[in-house]
TrEMBL record:
Cross-referenced Pfam families: NLPC_P60
Protein's UniProt keywords contain Zinc-finger: no
Keyword set, alphabetical order: Hydrolase, Protease, Signal, Thiol protease
Signal sequence, renumbered to the chain: 1-26
GO molecular function: cysteine-type peptidase activity
Domain named NlpC/P60: residues: 40-168
Record's keyword annotation contains Hydrolase: yes
Name the UniProt record assigns to this protein: C40 family peptidase
Taxonomic superkingdom: Bacteria
Family statement drawn from the similarity comment of this UniProt entry: Belongs to the peptidase C40 family.
Gene Ontology biological process terms from the UniProt entry: proteolysis
Length: 168
């Protein structure tokens, strides 16, 4: 069944060429780098969307109100990723298992970054943000009642960091 689509595509191209008077056809395959570029483009869109909501979104734990733009951290990531066609579940308990795990040293734009914000870092995830590159991430946080851009390389968030997932 996997090979049927390419055969149908070739048949359609051949038929179209014959109908329009062309006598040859070519099958073009996207280069392997195209998927990397597509993911990078999606990541840039995710970050751009998230930035657009800075100053417009309020934080409320356990809330997902897209009309009034009131979210907790995970409903905000769910909302933003949906804009580029990525289906995230609501809640850090679910999001921490979505996609593929990546090391902190391998982070790429658009990766989800997870934190333990309560007490000593015992790796109990309770906060999520979106990695922006350059050691920064964007997140909806109660400390500013909305969207903040914070550093992963120093201070509180460096100490609270637990893990990351690639969903793009």
């Amino acid at each position: 069944m996997k090979n049927v689509k390419p055969i149908i595509t070739k048949a359609i191209l051949l038929t179209m060429c014959a109908t329009t008077g062309f006598t040859t056809y070519a099958v073009v395959q996207a280069p392997p780098s195209a998927t990397v570029e597509a993911a990078s483009s999606k990541a840039d869109k995710v970050i751009s969307y998230a930035k657009k909501y800075k100053g417009r979104v309020s934080y409320d734990w356990g809330t997902r109100n897209t009309k009034k733009l009131i979210f907790d951290c995970s409903s905000f990531t769910e909302f933003i990723f949906a804009k580029v066609g990525v289906d995230l579940k609501w809640g850090t308990a679910s999001q921490k298992y979505q996609g593929k795990g990546v090391s902190k040293s391998s982070l790429k734009k658009g990766d989800l970054v997870f934190f333990d914000t309560i007490g000593k870092n015992n790796k109990k995830i309770n906060h999520v943000g979106i990695y922006m590159g350059g050691g920064k991430f964007i997140h909806n946080t109660p400390s500013v009642d909305g969207i903040a851009i914070s550093s992963l390389t120093s201070g509180f968030w460096k100490r609270a960091y637990v893990s990351a997932r690639r969903v793009l």
